[in-house]
Write a structure and sequence with these properties.
With 418 residues, the protein is an alpha+beta fold. Helices cover 17% and strands 27% of the residues. Strands 6, 7, 8, 13, 14, 16, 17 and 22 form an 8-stranded mixed sheet that branches. The structure holds manganese (II) ion (MN).
């Protein structure tokens, strides 16, 4: 696959995240306007709501682009997803007859405020990168018992909070919680001291289900993907997580990137999961490659400082694909809804600088990382900005996600000291 050319000049650069091959879906606002559906193309965003209102986009069951969220398009079904993409490619291709009519509907990305691209109806987070599970398990249980006995058979996850999901650019406040020093018997209530990030991908369910679905059906249900930072309070987590798993440690915020990169745009980059180390039960078998070759990185920018890349990895480091996770999620009969978000779990490679959390990068705080300025980090400091990037590399073009960023604000005063 090579670059598809657009009449939007900036979309023809090998350096843009948003060539015609991509066409990711977001929601944007400009000064004095309400949030509306848009499509990123080069350094511009096409006001898709305006294009639909003008009759340049026409969808079965429409209008579908007027609500300020992409849920109506998702809910319209896979035939509409395909038709919308076909119409957008036609409208934005080099030589399109509609170019002059569309030109006034382009807004510079630099002047747009990016909003939540869809209403998150439910949120589940998984634990499906083997290197991450092995690293965390080694720290907590030693290398012999690093992987829980179920890990090679089941995509482990927990039900998270849709209400905690925020879009890139939203500040994150350091939380208070119950913490316990390893040598203390009883906990204290205090600001989190070990606040961390988790580099993940998020899969968005576009087609609802009401019973168990196969891996192939699950793959068809996925509308697209976002980058996802599952902010984690490690000291709160260490005290609360046994025996039922994460709760308040994961409920402060989860940041997603503002652009939904569709499954259709990622199609040329499909890649297989790694060889199975234990045979999976038949229902989890994949009928084809269901991961994607997406380069991922994390940067940390201290307040007033420069951006430091602290990790580089790839989505193919997952042991389970989103389709396998979604299939497993429905085995109980659990219904899935339009706008269900599935976090992949922290994505870590095998090398030290490919780990997707500070917990692993600093090995539980024992080996702090050093930034360009000479400062060190075991966990996040107030004022740090964390940014995730992701892109699939094609021949002379790339399909990117834009930035997924958030800044950590200092804890407020004790919320219960009144
Ligand atoms: Mn996570």
């Amino acid at each position: 696959m090579t670059l598809k050319k657009s009449w939007v000049e900036s979309a023809n650069s090998a350096e843009t995240d948003f060539p015609l091959n991509n066409l990711p879906y977001g929601v944007f606002a400009t000064e004095g306007t309400a949030p509306r559906c848009g499509v990123a193309i080069g350094d511009m965003v096409l006001d898709a709501a305006a294009a639909e209102a003008a009759g340049l986009i026409a969808l079965e069951g429409g209008p579908l682009l007027q609500s300020g969220a992409w849920n109506p398009v998702m809910g319209a079904g896979a035939a509409v997803w395909k038709d919308l993409r076909r119409q957008l490619v036609t409208l934005l291709s080099e030589g399109a007859a509609e170019a002059e009519a569309l030109r006034p509907m382009l807004v510079p990305l630099a002047g747009a405020t990016l909003c939540m691209p869809f209403a998150v109806t439910e949120y589940t987070d998984f634990y499906a990168s083997k290197n991450h599970a092995f690293n965390v398990g080694t720290m907590f249980r030693g290398p012999e018992n690093a992987l829980p006995p179920n890990w090679l058979s089941i995509p482990i996850g927990y039900n998270g909070r849709a209400s905690s999901v925020v879009v890139s650019g939203s500040d994150v406040r350091r939380p208070w919680g119950q913490l316990k020093a390893p040598d203390a018997e009883l906990p204290i209530f205090a600001p989190c001291k070990r606040f961390d990030l988790e580099l993940e991908m998020g899969a968005i369910v576009g087609t609802p289900s009401s019973g168990p679905v196969s891996v192939a059906e699950a793959d068809d249900m996925i509308f697209g993907y976002v980058l996802l930072n599952d902010w984690s309070a490690r000291d709160i987590q260490a005290w609360e997580y046994q025996p039922l798993g994460p709760f308040q440690a994961k409920a402060t915020a989860t940041t997603i990137s503002p652009w939904i990169v569709t499954k259709a745009a990622l199609e040329p980059f499909r890649a297989p999961t790694p060889p199975r180390e234990r045979e999976l039960l038949p229902y989890l078998a994949e009928p084809g490659p269901m991961l994607y070759d997406i380069d991922l990185s994390v940067t940390l920018t201290p307040a007033g400082g420069v951006e430091n890349t602290i990790s580089r990895t790839n989505y193919t480091n997952m042991y389970y694909s989103a389709a396998q996770q979604l299939c497993h999620h429905t085995t109980s009969g659990c219904s899935m809804r339009v706008g269900d978000l599935l976090g992949s779990g922290t994505i870590s490679g095998t090398e030290k600088d490919t780990r997707g959390s500070l917990l692993e990068l600093s090995w539980g705080g024992k080996e702090p990382i050093t930034l360009d300025s000479g400062e060190t980090r075991s966990f996040l400091e107030d004022g740090d900005t964390l940014t995730l990037y992701g892109a699939a590399q094609g021949d002379g073009y790339r399909v990117g996600f834009g930035a997924c960023a958030g800044t950590l604000l200092p804890a407020l005063d004790d919320p219960f000291a009144r």
